[in-house]
Design a protein that fits this description.
With 511 residues, this protein is an alpha+beta fold. 38% of the residues lie in helices and 10% in strands. Helix 2 packs across helix 15 and helix 10 runs antiparallel to helix 11. The longest helix is centred in the C-terminal third of the chain and has 29 residues.
Length: 511
């Protein structure tokens, strides 16, 4: 997913998976950048959603549970309509309809856990209060430098604006809303941000044969599975990171968020070093050899090969059949080191045009052993084959996303505007069981709530009311539960770090 360093200048978005730039205002004055910048908190209401005057202001006295609950009550079964406070969603509504998005935010989005994840504490702090949020509104206006002191204030603003999606940025040295009031520009700079990684299937278009562009299937999703396996173990074993959350992008990729304090506090140089450590595939579609690694292989690459070779035979040779066509088979020959062997292989393949990629891969060793080249360097051939496995299986990272603190990245649990699927977490210990095409859409989730409510109404009286939160009635439940567990582990670690710092500081008067 291509991302760009965001400034307050307008640029063109690449697609709905990219980080969107500041969009122009509705009927803006020409070249009025300052007017566009002053949009903090002043926006037009989303279309088709009436906004009352009193709704434009926060009501601190209002109780507003994060997830609405349905009581299984025995008094007068409720009507089929949701409570009056909840938005009405027509049965034929599409996921892009504003009322659908509003219902999703109000009934299903885990605001409280998102707050705890970004705040690293139950108590509000500048880790959240100085965090930048950016909203893409229903009219395509884009609001940057939004910030909120609490989970509730974020939730109320999202319910008011009803954005189609929102991104998360860094924690700044000052409140992003106050950036223009600071006397020195250097007083406003990013001070912390999760280390993030972005993997997009469009970067595999030259090696995947089943799909291209924004299209995906189970066959090519295996590239993401391989990437998560390789990157996750490297981050944990080689860098010692523990709090890593993988998130489905909603269509054709995955994001990694590393929340360890050491990762959050990294400056851009350290982020660049980590990204460079993991980057192996280099060069565009028209470049030659894309894997150029030193021998003996670094332990990370040796471990990666052990992981990837299990996928190479089935996911690459059989499912992708990358060298079935003559022009693609020629690419394979270009990566082999011996001309005589290449000529022998080319002759054999020309005589059998329907030969599979698995057979062609086996032909390399069989012809080499048969003496097709008198001067064959067996070591060079082995290394070339290792490089080929890496080129066709190793993670293709958008490293630019990882190098800078100021990058914004799509929030977990938002709805992808192109598919309607929710950006849910991926458990790396069960990554092979994750089905991107089975991730629920927002309209499916809202229908599941209605179906649960209809099925669980009780006409008898005298039973206790059992409250069930709306997300628990849907297929979103395991993903929210996983997120809650991840956040709980992070908060526990942060408490430990705080105690250690307090103990190390000690009491200067203590003897």
């Amino acid at each position: 997913m291509p991302h760009s360093l965001l400034s307050e200048e307008n640029t063109s978005p690449a697609d709905e998976d990219s980080i969107l730039p500041d969009a122009p205002l509705v009927n803006p004055e020409p070249h009025d950048v300052e007017a566009e910048d002053d949009l903090d908190g002043v926006v037009h209401a989303p279309p088709n959603i009436p906004v009352k005057l009193e709704d434009l202001f926060d009501d601190d006295e209002e109780e507003d549970d994060e997830f609405p609950s349905s009581g299984i009550t025995n008094e007068n079964p409720p009507s089929s309509s949701p409570p009056a406070s909840l938005p009405q969603v027509a049965p034929s509504a599409r996921y892009s309809d504003p009322e659908v998005m509003l219902a999703f935010y109000q009934r299903l989005f885990p605001f409280r856990h998102l707050f705890q994840w970004l705040n690293h504490s139950m108590k509000p702090s500048t880790d959240f209060g100085h965090r930048e949020f950016a909203f893409t509104l229903q009219n395509d206006a884009y609001l940057r430098y939004q910030s909120f002191p609490t989970s509730d204030s974020l939730r109320k603003e999202i319910l008011r604006l009803n954005p189609s999606r929102f991104e998360i940025g860094p924690v700044y040295t000052a409140n992003p809303r106050d950036r223009k009031t600071l006397r020195k520009s250097t007083a406003f700079r990013p001070r912390a941000k999760e280390l993030v990684f972005d993997i997009d299937l469009t970067d595999y278009d030259e090696v995947r044969t089943c799909c291209d562009k924004a299209n995906i299937c189970h066959k090519c999703w295996s590239f993401i599975t391989m990437a998560i396996k390789v990157v996750d173990v490297a981050l944990r074993d080689d860098f010692g990171f523990e709090h890593i959350m993988w998130v489905y992008s909603g269509r054709r990729g995955a994001h990694a968020w590393i929340s360890d304090r050491r990762a959050r506090d990294m400056d851009d140089q350290k982020r660049k070093a980590v990204a460079g450590y993991l980057e192996v595939i280099k060069g565009g579609a028209q470049s030659g050899k894309k894997v150029n690694v030193k021998r003996p292989l670094h332990p990370h690459l040796g471990r990666s090969l052990d992981i990837l070779k299990e996928h190479f035979q089935g996911d690459i040779l059989e499912n992708q059949d990358p060298w079935a066509k003559p022009e693609r088979a020629e690419r394979l020959l270009q990566l082999l080191p011996d001309k005589a062997l290449n000529n022998a292989l080319r002759k054999k393949w020309d005589a059998a045009p329907g030969r599979s990629s698995a057979s062609k891969w086996a032909d390399i060793d069989s012809l080499a052993k048969a003496g097709a080249s008198k001067n064959l360097d067996s070591k060079a051939l082995l290394e070339a084959k290792q490089d080929i496995v890496l080129e066709y299986t190793y993670p293709r990272l958008d490293v630019e996303v990882s190098k800078k603190q100021i990058h914004l990245l799509k929030s977990p649990f938002v709805v992808h505007p192109g598919t309607g699927r929710v950006c849910v977490p991926i458990d790396p210990t069960r990554v092979e069981r994750f089905d991107p095409l089975g991730v629920p859409t927002v309209t499916e989730l809202l229908s599941e709530i209605d179906a649960w409510d209809k099925e669980n109404r009780k006409e008898e009286s005298g039973e206790d009311v059992k409250k069930v939160q709306d997300y628990e009635k849907t297929r979103l439940r395991p993903f929210v539960d996983y997120f809650k567990t991840h956040v709980g582990s992070l908060l526990k670690a942060e408490k430990g770090v705080k105690r250690e710092r307090e103990r190390d500081d000690g009491d200067p008067m203590e003897f």
